[in-house]
Structures are given as structure tokens and as C-alpha cells.
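Onboarding guide, step 5: your first structure request.
Type a short instruction followed by the sequence, for example:

Predict the 3D structure of this protein.
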Amino acid sequence: MRGRTLRRLGGTLLKMRPIMRAGHRHKRKNVPPDPAADGQRPLSRIIVEQLFSRVAGASPVQGNALRLLRDGAENYGAWLAAVAVARDHVHFENYIFRNDAVGRRFAEALAAKAREGVAVRVLYDWMGCFGQVPRSYWRNLREAGAEVRCFNPPRLDSPFGWLSRNHRKTVCVDGEIGFVSGLCVAKVWVGDPSRKLAAWRDTGVELRGPAVADLRAAFAQSWAEAGGALPDAGLGGPPAPAGAVSLRVIGSRPNTMGLYRFDQLIAGMARRSLWLTDAYFVGTTAYVRTLCDAAADGVDVRLLVPGPSDIPVAKALSRAGYRSLLEAGIRVYEWNGPMLHAKTAVADGRWARIGSSNLNLASWMGNWELDVAVEDEDFAAEMERMFEQDLQGATEIVLDLGRVHSKHHKGGPARRGSPGRLAAGAVGLGSAVGAAITDHRALGPAEARVMAAGGGILLALAIAAVAAPRLLTIPIAAIAAWIGVTLLVRAWRLRLSRTGTQPETTPTGNAHAASARPHASDHPADHAPTGRSDGEDRKLEPAALDRRQPG
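The system replies with C-alpha cells like these:
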């Protein structure tokens, strides 16, 4: 009954047009409804609009033009074309760069613009690019005049900070055109016809209009997190309207969980259909339950995931959850190609999402992510057509005599995944093991592989503890000493900050003065902790609220 009531409310939302927001600013801000406009709209529409803005931490921006881009050929071509005509600045943010034909082509294009005097800023993630490119790759860009920053390199005073990654994939040129996608910069996204290797499947979007200002603001946040603040000259005012599409730019940061709440809300409000494409699906119990409830209420819920995966453990954990989805009436498909890397959703032919966020805890809670949530019937219809085309290259998973069954896929070679996705996989593994121990939910045959892996790991640890105790005690003692020293140093710095004394240290990695960040937002989410696992940014003392201590 409650689900039907929520879906009726959702129908009001998905049919409405978002309000025009006044005074669009550089930083995302939830703009209060215009009292004059409120008198012309139903109260339910006002309430639901405000609900969406609060949950996502982003207000709708009207007057935009969008172009859907499929796979590496279309996305890379559009990115390079925009960079080639840049006049003022290029902001390029990505999780992975590789030193292959594609990576070198982008490096050459960015270096050429920097030599012309264009302000080129490149932000890459330390973990994503570890072992992917030589130092000369970045040195050549810097020598050409580009600014290059590394996001969140490991630090001795942050034992678990490396778990939080910058997983965003965005390009912004001259503050007039922007791109949001799931694509990294590597040859696998275009394939290799000479070796008969198909391209990875992925999706992106080209954006023009006032919402590009939100892309600039999101880049300014992550750029400042990796060093000094972005100059005001790199921002500027919002572009003029370029179309009629309304959208939200959702720039997620660790522990804000704005996109998670947004995804939950859409799943709960969908009335006709909800079609999801995800590369590393390891949904939380709450999210999976929401999908199952929607399917039980008659919503056409479909999930498209990879067949072969670059992270085998992620595939195993995804498959372990198929049974509950299939039994609830959700249709699950596996991609037949080498790798499906897209992260998209479309609901009721009215709402769509494209970006870098996967449906797992690493994206929802641990990483810096960026997505575009679009409220437009024409664009959503285009997304539905693309999803239906993708299903023609996929195999549907079915329950055959109580067992999960699918056709055989030819997998590609396994590749290294991010620690965040591995952490999300560990959460899934822990959930399955916990269910087996406590017997709080039924386990199916599809989870046998996960159970075997968990049992084997625990048994190996038990044998090692008996046969060679030092193999466990020494690493545990070292980690405990590391964390202990880190906490003592942090406590000392907090105490000094309370007394007004600041130790002489040089900021490294992500540490910098918070007061130097540009355009402080009025939205509470923008003042929230960045969510490092070691608790670096938690508000511990009133005297420390106005600045971050150097690392």
C-alpha cells in the first residue's frame, strides 16, 4: 500500500516540469521556490520538487541542450573536437589515463592547446593511473604549459584515505560546452580491429547551456581538493540558454550519499518502467529491496550488466544477487561483448541519468563521482531506444528449475579494478557470509561460489594463524601502530589549532586550507565532510571548523 502511494506521488513528479531557478551561481545551491510562481502550481508539485532537490543536493537547471554519445568513437571524437577549438581554458578530469594510442592522442591535443596559451588543467586519480602511465607523460604536459594535479596520493598520516578515489570523468571547455560520461582515457574504449578486439560499451553526454556552470563548479571542488583553489578567471558566469532541457548536475563526494538517495527515490517513484545499465552492480539490501518492491507493484524493472568483466570478483558478487532479483520479477541481462562499462538509468520515459556512478557502495558512499540527471521526455525516449538496442547484444538470465541459467559468454582478459570497487565487492562478500552465519535470509545456488571463496579465505587465515602466528600478528601490529601514531598526530594538531598555534607543515596530496576554496556554497551538503575513511574531515573541535589542518 505504501509503495503504491509513493508511486502515485512519483507520477506527479515525473510528469511535471521543474521550476526555473533564479540567479544561477557558480556553486550548486538549492534555490528556494519563487513565491510568485508557487501560487500558480499545485502544492504537491512544489513539495516533490523540493524533495528531489534536497535528496540530490542539486537544483534543476533549465535551458540546456544535450547530445547522447555512444562508446569511445563518439565520445572521444566530441572531446577532441571541443578541445581543438578551445580559446580560454580546458578542464579535463578523469580516473584513468593510459599510455596507449588514445592516451597519447589526448596528451598531444592538450599539450598543443597549452602551447597556444589556453589554460589547460588536468586532474587524474593516483590509484586509477598507478602503473598506467610513466612520469614522462605528465612531465611533457607540464613542460607544454598545462597544470597537472594528482588526486589523493597515499600519505603516511592517512592510513585509509586511499580508499576514497576521484572516479569522475568530465571535460569542460571555455565554460560553454561540457561532457559527462563513464569513459576513461584508454584504447579499450575504441577497441582494436586488427586484433579483432571490440570496443568497450559505454555512454556519455555532451552538454551546452547554463548547467555547464555546475560542471565548472564541480571541477573547481575536486581541483581545490588536490591543491590550491581554481582562479576566478577559470570560472566566469553561466552560459546563455542553449535549449529546453532541464537537468541536475549531481557532484557526489564521500559520505554525502546524495546520488544513493536519489536512486532510491527514483526506484520508489517509478510507475511504468525502470531500466538500469551498470558495470559493477553490487546493490545494497535496501536498494535491491526497493527494486523488488517496484517490480512486485507492476513496474517493468530491467538490469543490464557485463557478461565478461575486468573485475572477476565483481561479476561473481553481481551474479550472487541474481536470484532475489529474478524471483521478484526483475529481468536481468548480461552483455555479450568484451565489457559493458556504462552507468545509466531511465525511468517512465521521463527521467534519465548518465555519469560515472556505479550501483554500489564505492560510488554511492566512497568516491567523488559526477552524474547528470535529466528530466526530459525526448531525451529519455532516446535513452530507452539505446537500451533496447543494447538488449539485442545481450543474453537474458532466467530461472530454470530453480537455478540461475544463461548462455555461455566468451570473456576477455581480467584487468585491474579500483580499490573502491573491490571494497564494494568485499561488502557484498561480507553480506553473503553474514547471511550464511546468521541465517537471516535464504541463500541460493548462485551464491555458492561466493560462499566457497569466503570459506576458503577464512580457513587459510586460520591455518596461517596456527602454523605461523607471526604472519598475522606482525602485520596487525604494524597497522595498529600506524593508525595509533596517526591519531596522536591528529590530536596534537587539533589541540594546537584550538590554542591558535599552527604547526609548520607543508600540505601534500589533498590537504590544503579550506578557507582558500572558491565560492563557498550555502548548501549544507557542500560543507559536509569529504568522508575519508580515517575521519580526517570530521568536525571534531569548534576551533577547527574554519580550516583544514595540513597533512
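Each response can be followed by summary notes, for example: Confidence is low (pLDDT under 50) at residues 12-29, 407-424, 503-551.
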